Amino acid sequence: MKGIIFTEFIAFMEAAHGPDFSDDVIYESGLAERAAYTSVGTYDFSQMQMLLTAFCKKSNSGLPDALRSYGRFLSRTFQSKHRDMYAQYPDIIEFVSSVENHIHMEVRKLYPDAQLPRFDVLERTPDRLVISYRSCRPLVDLAAGLIEGSAAFYGQEATVRHRRQVADDGEFHIIELDAQQAVLQ
Ligand code: HEM
Description:
Elements: H1 3-17, H2 19-29, H3 45-59, H4 63-81, H5 83-87, H6 92-97, H7 99-110, E1 118-125, E2 128-134, H8 140-153, E3 157-167, E4 170-180
Antiparallel strand pairs: 1-2, 2-4, 3-4
Helix pairs in contact: 1-2, 1-4, 2-3, 4-8
The chain binds protoporphyrin IX containing FE.
Protoporphyrin IX containing FE binds next to helix 1, helix 7 and helix 8.
């Protein structure tokens, strides 16, 4: 997993609970100190799981909620770091529809060893999008938070729900996005 996902998770903990809380989580997770992570490095996902587990225990939150909140935070980082990627799209439906074939393709150019999920568009109208999410990692709630947070870039309210599906070739998730167009000023 790319280091940016770790370094931003540490920034997320600091923003939400302060630096002492963040240091305690890193210590209690059993991981080496934070200086070990760089945004362009690649680290085992098991290390992220250790951080997430320690964070949930210390903040008394469930994993789905923690991942969703972190996804919203991470989307703000992406919006400032990769503003051009957002600015090419007129709204959240078009943006999320393009993650598989454009956004994550660009990500792969920046980080060739990134292990990215797969999204397929199943249904699309101007205010609703249904996609499937396939990944070897249990991060569907991170995707939900990234979508919710990204909607803010377009000044839109978004409701994101997901459910697990089992198919012959393994399990995947269906993500439903309902977006309200912002009132233009
Ligand atoms: C400009 C916007 C975006 C950028 C720059 C970006 C970049 C990245 C990067 C660097 C990773 C880490 C890959 C790795 O660890 O090897 C990642 C993973 C991920 N991205 Fe994106 N992403 C963007 C938008 C989105 C959006 C809108 C979604 C939701 C639909 C999304 C869903 C995910 C998920 C769920 C993962 C975790 C990997 C997994 O589930 O297997 N990303 N992305």
